[in-house]
């Protein structure tokens, strides 16, 4: 995994959001 401060934050946030949406569906 790439260690980017401005690359991991958004990716992690998107993954969390996607997980929540998929989990709620």
State the main characteristics.
80% helix; 25 residues; single chain
Could you provide a short overview of the structure?
With 25 residues, the chain is mainly alpha-helical. It is built from one helix and no strands.
Structural account:
This protein is mostly helical. It is built from 1 helix and no strands. The protein has one helix at residues 5-24. The longest helix has 20 residues, at 5-24. The radius of gyration is 10 Å and the shape is rod-shaped.
What structural class do helix, strand and pairing data support? mainly alpha
Characterize the largest beta sheet: strand count, sense, and whether it forms a barrel.
none
Instruction: Write the H/E string, N to C.
Output: H
Unreliable segments of 5+ consecutive residues: none
Q: Give the strand tally.
A: 0
How far apart are the termini? 28 Å
> What is the 3D form?
rod-shaped
The percentage of residues in β strands lies in: under 5%
Could you estimate the helical fraction of the residues in percent? over 70%
Can you count the helices? Answer: 1
Rounded to the nearest angstrom, the radius of gyration is 10 Å
Mean pLDDT: 81
Secondary-structure map:
Layout: H1 5-24
